[in-house]
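Q: Structure for this?
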Amino acid sequence: MKSDLHFKESNITFLKLFVFLILSIFFLYLDKDLEYGNKVRNNISYLVQPVYNLANFPSKLSDNIQTFFKNKNDLIEENKILKKKIQIQSGIIQKIPSLTEENNRLKKLLDSSTSVNSSKILLAELIRVNLSPFSNKIIINKGRDKNLYIGQTVIDSTGILGQISEINQTFSVVTLITDPGHALLGVNTRTKKRIVISGTGDNRKLKAMYIALNEDVVEGDSLITSGLDNVFPEGYLIGKISKIKKDMNQDFLDVSVVPSSALSSNREVMVLW
Amino acid sequence: MVIINKVHVVTIIFLMIGVILNLIPLPDLLAATKPPILLLILIYWSLAFPKHISLTYAFVSGVIIDILLITPIGYHALCFTVTIYLILIYYPQMRLQSSWNKMVSLLIILIPYFLMSTAVNNILGISFNLMHVTFSILISIIIWPGLFNVLRFIRQKYTS
């Protein structure tokens, strides 16, 4: 009698396993491009946001404690340095209007179209949660309420970070340029050659693809966005070529690029319009 | 009946804590090798109450963690379900084992989990680092005895 019961129970468990396996494989098939996941997150973003906030709380708290215990003299010193920095930078900025004008004039002489510079910048804070170790995504605390749109460029002070791939009510997801599924078109500043740069999954490394064996690249070349991919505006820093491996049996050079932005270790990022 | 309700409530609370712990930011090196803490908590409760905490819990918590971690829905659900099924097969032996022996059993149960997640990674084209995966398994096994004792203390206090 008892063994009979046991048998029944294990049968039910097996049936459950079977149903759940089919269900999850079906979900995986539907959601392989994260489309349904986006919809779900969109609809329950008021539930997701508090969880993220809760997970973000310890790092925020430690930040607050650090600022609370900061020495007054240190702060004064820091303030001085920052003021000096601002002075220098505004000195550099003074020249920009005249330079743009000159640039436009020269471009007109050459009969090429003038580029439109983006004007508005929105500061966004990172919601620091530990996503899966294999994903190259970050979450920022601005969403639909600030009129972001999908494909918008996100940068930090040293270079390009990525693009917005999902927008919810109060937070959005940014896919970094190091995501293995991400590629963008850059320009070598020295030779003006266009280069496709794709992510590797490692946040410290990018990969420049389809560079012919005899092409002119050297280590240390810096790459900027070209503006030809219709996603990223022109002229933002992507990174520097760090290593070139030449194998005569391969069709293309194996070129690694170090991204110039601090990718996942940022506190604040900028969203461009 | 009251005790069973208590079991469900305590388990759900701990799974929520597990979800939060899974999301808490860590330094870069640790983040890459972080153990699947939610799965470990789930394993503990299904070892303790295999009749009540079983595949449904695994599937639902997998879906929730998929939504939060921005992975394709079904990824963790699949891996969790299979792992908890292994526990359901294996729990009569595992309960009787000593602490060291349990760590080895956990290794045997976690290896299919990681194999499965790497297989899904491969199919979906998500990149992964095998070194990090290995370290993740090792760290989970190292933290298991501590986690086990903490959770057992709580179980004895609140669900009996």
